[in-house]
Design goal:
The protein has about 70 residues and is mostly helical. It is built from 3 helices and no strands. The mean pLDDT is about 75.
């Protein structure tokens, strides 16, 4: 059972690092990045939102085996 926390950490790390770098180029391609820049939020909030969305994605990837059985 000591292997389990390490697997959780690795899964979250690798899944979030594959999603986060693609979000800004995807938004530039779909032209929603400009909306984000002109939104009445600080840059810190925007970056925190990107990090949080990548974390939630990684957490959902991590929890999907529990849901399936």
């Amino acid at each position: 059972m000591t292997l389990f926390p390490g697997l959780i950490a690795l899964t979250l790390f690798f899944s979030t690092t594959t999603v986060a770098p693609f979000s800004v180029p995807w938004e530039k391609m779909t032209r929603t990045f400009e909306r984000l820049l002109f939104a009445p939020v600080s840059m810190t909030d925007a970056v925190l939102g990107k990090v949080l969305s990548a974390f939630v994605f990684g957490l959902s990837c991590r929890c999907s085996p529990w849901r399936s059985g």
